[in-house]
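Researcher: Good morning. I'm working through a list of sequences from a screen, and I'd like to move beyond sequence-only analysis. For each chain I'm collecting a predicted structure so we can compare shapes side by side. This is the next one on the list. No need for commentary yet; just the structure.
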Amino acid sequence: QKNIVNQLALVKSTFNKVKDAELHLMISELNRDFVFIKDENFKIVYANDAFNNSCPKEIQDKITGVITTENYNDDETKINSAQNRDALDSSINKIVENLSTANGSHITLETIKQHFEDKSGKHYILGICRDITEKENFISKLQRINSELDEFTSIASHDLKSPLNAIKRLLEWISDDCKDLLPEEHLENFQLVINRTNRMKVLLEDLLSYSRINN
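Model: Good morning. Structure tokens for this chain:
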């Protein structure tokens, strides 16, 4: 009876482990992020479907055992190797990189590489790459719009100062020429308009200062 109970417990435990492994594998395969695992020699020992589909078709079936830097130029190879070593040494690192996919499009990835060990003490790197192309494009668009807005603010405020100064001078000349001819109330109105032009001049100068902040 003890043997039967032990065997049933072992079968149940094995079934649960297999079920968990299948669930974890399914989660990884359905993940839209690129998920991969490299050994301590930086060779890929696992890659999910999203990662495989981003690679050239001729190597999609042979991705396991490949060192990804084989497809990089010398500078990219140095950078990628340094990042892998850093991930092994510092446990985790985060980078943003631009890559070309199998269909020829260019994407921006935020990659997190994390060091871990299996039960036997072997060292691995878990990599998760998230496509942030849309986010980066949106940020670039916002930066371009802000730059154009700053330029417009600078030009508009600078160009508006000249006619405003001319208006102020004309008002001051008329006020001086007619101070003995106009009633006190009209002279006060002239002075009120001149004060408003002074205030507008200060606002334009503030706009110019604001547009120069980024510089």
